[in-house]
Amino acid sequence: MGNILKKLIISILIVSNLDASDPIMLDSIFENAKGLRSNTSIDILTSSGTRKFTSYPRLLSYDDGTIIDETKQVLLNQSFMSEYNSNLDLLFSFNAYYRNITYIEQNGIDEKSSTSFDSIWMGAKYSFDTRLYEFKQSIILQTALMQNMEYKNSEERFNLKSYYLQYNLQHFSDPLISSIYFATTQNLDRKINDINVALPDSYSLGLDLFLILNPNISLNFNFEENYQTAMKEEEQRVNSSTILSTMGFGVTYNLNENNSLSINSHIGTSSNAPDSRVTISLWHKF
User: Which end of the chain is more exposed for a tag (fewer CB within 10 A), N or C?
Assistant: First the structure.
């Protein structure tokens, strides 16, 4: 029993740097982060606001001026992590989505559905040997090799236009695992329909808590504040900056030595955040 509990403690310590929007770093079923691991997740988001959303690697919203009554979105994510050395892991992820949006137009309500390949991300995670007081440190850097973007009913594909950086501090105090993370998504300007568009940049501060119930089950809690800058067209501001505040609850269950299942649910606690978001994830070691 002691070895099993030790394995769970070590694995959840790795988990604690993530929320449901960042599944690639979860390595909850391995005593050591070695070899090839994968995560397959389904992210279901609903919102009754005017904003459109992307949810990988971090929740991001934008308002392109279209009047939206309701958004329903399902994002399928497949992620891989492979050890390069004892400190460095290589990351690769690709996403596809189904989106149903209800627009308010002059002649009434118009409902549109679309399915598309969303993005390909590549990057790395580096774990430091030194600790900051009692906290384990790690850093994640990813870039979007390819992104599809829907803007004012047009869709364009872009390469190397978005970059993601996350710094994690993790601490263990039996039976609680805690993690503080600081993250930013930086978006370069892009041209859509001959219009120069500057998407919002985001800056996130989050807290993850994992409560160990027994060797196979943990309860997960997440709190996040996400500040987003204003969006611009041709250097002119088209909407103001905003804050996406969310809180979440979930459970992680180890199915066997090679697989585990995680279910997390989030609600928005600010006006522009999604009303609800549910993520179901299956982790696997090859």
Answer: N
What residue spans of 41-152 are helical by DSSP H? none
Q: Which of 30-34, 98-102, 234-238, 245-249 has the lowest mean pLDDT?
A: 30-34
State both tokens at 263: 């279910």
In tens, the pLDDT along 34-47 reads 688 999 999 999 99
Query: Which pTM value belongs to this model?
Result: 0.84
Q: What is the CATH number of domain 2-285?
A: 2.40.160.40
In sequence order, which residues have a C-beta less than 8 Å from that of residue 92 and are 6 or more positions away? 79, 80, 81, 120, 121, 122
CB 46 within 8 A of CB 274: yes
Contact predicate 206/223, CB 8 Å:
yes
Q: Return the number of other C-beta atoms located less than 10 Å from residue 96's C-beta.
A: 15
**DSSP count for the chain of H helices, then E strands:** 1, 19
CB 148 within 8 A of CB 176: no
Percent helix, strand and coil across the chain, each to the nearest 5: 5, 70, 25
The number of residues making up the chain comes to 286
